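Quick check before the chapter quiz. The format below is the same one you will see on the exam, so make sure you can read both the input and the output lines.
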Amino acid sequence: MPQPRQGGRHRRPDSHELPEAAKPLILAVPGPANGELLALVGEVALLAGADLPGLDIRPVVIEEDGTDLAAVLHGAPAAVVVPLLLGPNAAATARTEAALAAAEGDFQHCGVLGPHPLLAEVLHERLSEAGLARADRARLFSVATAAEGIVLVTDGGPEAVAAAEVTGVLLAARLALPVMTADLGDPKTVVAAAERLREMGAGSIALAPHVLGPDVEAGRIAEVADQAGCTAAGPIGAHTAVAKLILHKYLEACG
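Here is the expected output.
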């Protein structure tokens, strides 16, 4: 299994205690499966497991027919299913709920991870790592920036974009910069958002991908950034903040 990526200013989540008779945590991410996606899910599972030793974490990629998730559920009479999703994804949610309905056992299905201030923090870090924003080492608040406006892009359609707007507001507050939200799957909205920022006086514009990375087609971020005349930061990827949100969902479900 891959080792967690080090570097940057990733901060360990707060410590948690494993509940008595803890149910397994099924970490579910929509497919199709590929090597990068499997590596990312495994890495996030390692990060979460490091903060809550002893927790049975079972990563699974949900294929269109739901068979992989059904197989994992079959081996657990009770479990908490946490989707590795940053925002709404109707198709993935429907697949998960269908598999849960067909399974026999005590299963709880948690909501998606965002919007959340921790995701805004990770986006800030990714912009900083790309040289598009500087961050104070202690507090991660911007002290200078190479970009004058940010286009936050997400995948999943209008519902996902609407949810990501909340994280965009939080990111704007961190950077003291205008942030527009657009649909990565519709490049015209990204171009329009960048043009709007230029009309507001922004000269250099950065693209902040509100995606995990392997969950979008390879090269799409760079292609859309080029069309919009933006410089792209890296995707959110495997990060301790993502693991922290997963554990929060799990412990909340456990009561």
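If your answer matched, good. The chain has two domains: 25-114+239-254, 117-232.
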